[in-house]
Automatic annotation (TrEMBL):
Molecular function GO labels: DNA binding
Gene3D superfamilies per UniProt: Winged helix-like DNA-binding domain superfamily/Winged helix DNA-binding domain
Keyword Transcription: yes
Domain of life the protein comes from: Bacteria
UniProt entry keywords in alphabetical sequence: DNA-binding, Transcription, Transcription regulation
Domain HTH luxR-type per the UniProt entry, residue ranges: 180-245
Organism this protein belongs to: Pseudoduganella armeniaca
Record-given protein name: HTH luxR-type domain-containing protein
Keyword hit for Transcription: yes
Length: 251
């Protein structure tokens, strides 16, 4: 391995480390910030589309260096876009295209890309775990300078790391959402009174006598209280109520 190759490998490893660190411990915006910084070190470009979703049905599109309306307008031409088709047909490769050569004359796709100054494009797509292409990264140039073979190679390394890191971040976010408890339904005034009386150590019969209701009514209240608070014992109920009492009041 030459000294140049060794330095290049080190750069790739450093890039992956920084981007994956952002994916594991940061926000999606931080992942994008790190990704942009690394892409711009090796590849001159003036616009970017970063999307997720099925081919020609992108759900979430980030636009950099172009008006935000580009994301909305792309959806109108997506079913006919040969640029997306090129990346879809051969994923995990950097495709450099000249829009005027790939798109048919007077086609909506050509009008779209040229209207947003995307005369030269380099696009990369990545499948998800099921093999369905679901992540896309496209770089744009307005000046007409073609992307070189060296830049395509750099895009291959960077886009693979960037889109994988994004998938890692989204999987992490989905797990965090799934782990969140369902929003608690507030107790009614009667349920709160029953909960406090029972948690203070009174038996069900005494709580019923104090409340002027039957024991079966108290038991029904307790079943709803346990379900709403997500507890399964008197000890757990007492702790939840104590935590609520100790919580500072606003105002």
């Amino acid at each position: 391995m030459t000294r140049f190759s060794y330095r290049r490998e080190n750069r790739h490893e450093q890039m992956q480390l920084e981007i994956f660190e952002a994916a594991l411990f940061g926000t999606e915006a931080e992942v994008m910030e790190r990704a942009l910084a690394w892409l711009q070190r090796d590849i001159p470009f003036d616009g970017l589309l970063w999307a997720t979703g099925a081919p020609r049905a992108w759900e979430d599109v980030h636009v950099v260096g172009r008006p935000p309306e580009m994301a909305r307008d792309y959806r109108a031409i997506a079913p006919l876009d040969p640029v997306c088709g090129r990346a879809e047909s051969a994923p995990e490769r950097a495709h450099a295209v000249t829009v005027a050569e790939l798109c048919a004359p007077d086609s909506p796709a050509l009008a779209f890309w040229q209207g947003y100054r995307g005369h030269q494009l380099m696009i990369y797509s990545k499948p998800d775990g099921s093999g369905q292409v679901s992540a896309w990264l496209s770089l744009m140039r307005a000046d007409g300078a073609r992307f070189s073979a060296r830049e395509q190679q750099a895009m291959g390394h960077a886009a693979q790391a960037v889109l994988t890191a994004q998938q890692v971040w989204r999987a992490k976010a989905a797990r965090a959402r799934a782990a969140q408890p369902a929003p608690a339904t507030p107790l009614t005034g009667r349920e709160l009174a029953v909960a406090h009386a029972y948690a203070d150590g009174r038996p069900v019969k005494e709580v019923a006598r104090l409340m002027g209701v039957s024991t079966s009514t108290v038991q029904c209240h307790l079943a709803r209280i346990y379900r709403k608070l997500g507890v399964h014992s008197k000890i757990a109920l007492r702790k939840v109520l104590q935590d609520r009492r100790s919580r500072p009041r606003c105002g």
